[in-house]
Amino acid sequence: MAFDAPAPSEPGTGYGVERDIVLNGQHEIHTHESIKALTGRGVEAFRAVDRRLPADSFVALVCSGETAPRVDAMTSLRGLSKPGLLSVLAFGPVNWPDGRQRLAVIHSAPHAGQFALTAPLKPTQVVEGLLRPMAAALHEIHARGTTHRAIRPDNLFMRAPGATILALGPCVTTPPGFGQPEIYEPIHTAMADPAARGNGTAKDDMFALGMTAVALLLGRQPGSEYDRDTLMIRRLELGSLEAVVERPSMPREIIDALDGLTADDESERWTVASLLKWLNGGRPDQPRSYDTSHALVPYEIAGKAVRKARSLAYMLGQHWSEGARHLRGEELMRWLRD
């Protein structure tokens, strides 16, 4: 597998400060040692140490306040330790020297670095390095009544040098699904504002896991060759999996899992139990084939050709000004009747 080595510590912005901050009298947050791989919109990551275990290194994620963190998920996931997960160890408010109070979360550290999506992986690597540890981690997460909602290639890490499995990165410092590229979200949440995708269900995590497996097999982000509207139209007309891969190109030994995990009909999408059954040699029920029937003559809107009512509805909503003009005309009504 390909991984980026841990980035060397460097001066962080620290939201205007470069000195140690202490959380709950136990964890020292080194604001001058930023961790770029875990820093993103609404959160900055720093190296942290536990005063009781000064030789160990941890990660502190400090929320900026720009977005709402998932405090309920922090409570549910605190203390959960699985090989396929960067554990939440502690969280709480810290007084930042800029005069504001911020929420900080302490995570176990990914000592071997961040996963790099640079080359295709073999099916066995995807199964043993991703699907098996993720199934075990998600089983525990869902059993605690919460969801991860941040499963994607750039949020995968290695917890220790020499390890052969991936670990899910943080998921509690921003709204659920907030950092997800649309292709890792089911269709109904992919069309929503990133800050308003909601906690979702366990089935949303399964979709993200399936599409992440596709990304690792391809060595790139699925659907990256299409613009946003084209990709969504393809998903609505062909199905999410067929929209981004040619079925014959997918390895036969893993295609059943990809079909089950990325099914667009949530009622037919695999659960963690289904995935575990498959991993242990069983044969879970497969989703029915996606209905690809469509109009023979496409309808043109905003420079795109659509062939199904759902993709037309999507384009009308995305381009509502032009869509209003189409709705007032006769051509659209004729196409729908035909």
Give a description of the structure:
With 338 residues, the chain is of the alpha+beta class. The relative contact order is 0.10. Helices cover 33% and strands 19% of the residues. The chain has helices at 71-77, 123-143, 187-190, 202-218, 228-238, 240-244, 252-261, 272-279, 309-318, 320-328, 330-337; strands at residues 3-4, 20-23, 27-34, 43-50, 53-63, 88-95, 101-108, 113-115, 156-158, 167-168, 299-301, 304-306. The protein is globular. The chain is built from 11 helices and 12 strands. It has a 6-stranded antiparallel sheet with strand order 2-3-4-5-7-6, with no helix packed on it. A 4-stranded antiparallel sheet has the order 1-8-9-10. A two-stranded antiparallel sheet has the order 11-12.
Main traits of this protein?
globular; 11 helices; 19% strand; disordered N terminus; Transferase(Phosphotransferase), domain 1; Phosphorylase Kinase, domain 1; six-stranded antiparallel β-sheet; 33% helix; 338 residues; four-stranded antiparallel β-sheet
